[in-house]
């Protein structure tokens, strides 16, 4: 029943681990941009709403269509027939008893918003360069990619003149690997924290459905990195016990 109830963005799974993995990927994407909304839909043997449900299904709502106003939460539904001009979007009031809202803590929300802003700016710069080199703006724009790359190399050479080629070789001789490993562990900690938040939201939805239907179920993970694993890896970064290759790829070192 749990497998069939799992929200599936693409297709249903026959294995709980695959269904959970699919859910986590979707949940992390939604949480990185805002809240995660899980709606519980119950199934009954009869049409009587007073009868006890026998099954349920979870649906992840599109956050851009969720609206909260005066303490109530609404969901905008597209017209049933988009070919009819008289059809309009309708607003449906969501039942708070069937809605689970998952949010990131304030500090994590600030981190994600700041990171997404920087990534979007970087994507814009890349898009501008592609338009000038491959798009229609490239013809007659005066932008020369080879000249741009040459000047970029000259800037690097000029600003690193004092350290010379031996100093520049620091970037390629593995001496920066500890810093790279630390960043890899930091990112793995971020992903693990968001994964746990998404799992808690799913567990809350299952528990609420269990209260209505009459069952108890608890989800536990195995074979994945935990916060304890990552804290230990971070502490061992300075001890030199674990090979650097494993620290650069924290996902390969799990309990």
Overview of this structure, please?
With 255 residues, this protein is of the alpha+beta class. It has a domain at 2-106. The chain has helices at 2-5, 16-33, 106-133, 145-159, 164-168, 177-213, 227-236, 244-248, and strands spanning 36-43, 55-60, 66-69, 72-77, 90-93, 99-102. A three-stranded antiparallel sheet has the order 2-1-6. A three-stranded antiparallel sheet has the order 3-4-5, with no helix packed on it. A hairpin with a 2-residue loop joins β3 (66-69) and β4. α2 (16-33) packs across α6 (177-213) and α6 runs antiparallel to α7. The longest helix has 37 residues, at 177-213. The protein is flat. The model has no long low-confidence stretch (mean pLDDT 85).
Main structural class: alpha+beta
Helix content: 40-55%
Q: Distance between the terminal alpha carbons, to the nearest Å?
A: 29 Å
Q: Can you write the helix and strand succession as a string?
A: HHEEEEEEHHHHHH
What's the arrangement of strands in the largest beta sheet?
A: 2-1-6
Tell the overall outline: flat
Radius of gyration: 25 Å
| Sequence stretches where pLDDT stays below 50 over 5 or more residues | none
Number of strands: 6
Mean pLDDT across all residues, rounded? 85
- The percent range for strand residues is 5-15%
What kind of sheet is the major sheet? 3 strands, antiparallel
By DSSP (H or I, 4+ residues per run), the number of helices equals 8
